[in-house]
Design a protein that fits this description.
Elements: E1 2-13, E2 16-27, E3 31-35, H1 42-50, E4 57-62, E5 65-66, H2 72-78, E6 80-82, H3 95-105, H4 112-126, H5 141-154, E7 159-163, H6 171-188, E8 191-196, H7 200-206, E9 209-214, E10 217-223, H8 224-228, H9 231-238
Parallel strand pairs: 3-8, 3-9, 6-7, 7-8
Antiparallel strand pairs: 1-2, 1-4, 4-5, 9-10
Length: 244
């Protein structure tokens, strides 16, 4: 079952075509990677999916519903959640309160008490439960990123968009996060899209399928290892083939 479908989506900023006639679909429960060099259109594509931008051309469908012109909060209520490359916590609020916001305003639409309970559950999942009462501004950069993941999961999404969530992590932290995401995807039957620029070996462990962006267009799409070792991808992006 398709959960997300893009049809010839285009976004321009003046004379710059940031995303050019991009089409793809994502199945329910699928793990997808979106990769490409800086400036390839990845972030703009995310912003189009979650409603920061409205396309100039094309259509976006979520569970069969046309969401092309819907605002961010409506898409969140439908079940689209997103993290950001640079975490954006409410610094003076506690870690628990930050995560509870996701439960209150996402697909879960929880009451305050329900949201706090959901926050506790996901803080345990990401390993931050012991810091639930600390101000979010006191967390380390890695902890803030994990809190962002917990807040997004607290929304009870059907589609989770991860923006460079593994950037800056050491290999053991990356493996831990990948295992966590795999478990959540299986247990909660959600689709997860992870956008990365450099961590190709991480994306091969996580994504069943990958979409390569280049100069605003979709260069290639398909099975992760096969696509990343394609001569076109090696030439314009990676520089060398990955080890299988």
């Amino acid at each position: 079952m398709e959960i997300l479908k893009l049809e010839n989506v285009t976004k321009r900023f003046g004379g710059l075509v940031a995303v050019n006639k991009v089409s793809f679909s994502i199945e329910k429960g699928e793990a997808i990677g979106i990769v490409g060099p800086n400036g390839s259109g990845k972030t703009t594509l995310y912003n189009l999916i979650n409603g920061v931008y409205i396309p100039d051309e094309g259509k976006i469908f979520f569970e069969g519903q046309d969401i092309t012109n819907l605002p961010i909060h409506t898409r969140a209520h439908l079940g689209i959640a997103r993290t950001f490359q640079i975490p954006r916590p409410f610094n003076s609020a506690t870690v628990r309160e930050n995560v509870a916001v996701g439960a209150m305003f996402g697909y879960a639409k929880a009451s305050v008490d329900e949201a706090l309970a959901i926050a506790d559950d996901y803080l345990k999942v990401v390993g931050l439960y012991d810091k639930r009462d600390a101000p979010a501004g006191k967390l380390t950069p890695l902890e803030k990123r994990l809190m962002e993941v917990a807040r997004a999961l607290a929304m009870k999404p059907k589609l989770l968009l991860l923006d460079e969530v593994m950037a800056g992590m050491n290999p053991s932290d990356i493996d831990r996060l990948i295992n966590l995401l795999k478990r959540i995807r299986e247990e909660e039957d959600i689709s997860i899209v992870s956008m990365v620029e450099h961590l190709m070996h991480a994306i091969t462990k996580f994504a069943e399928r990958v979409i390569v962006m280049h100069q605003g267009s979709k260069l290639l799409e398909g099975e992760t290892i096969k696509v990343l070792n394609d001569p076109r991808v090696v030439e314009v992006y990676l520089g060398k083939k990955l080890e299988s």
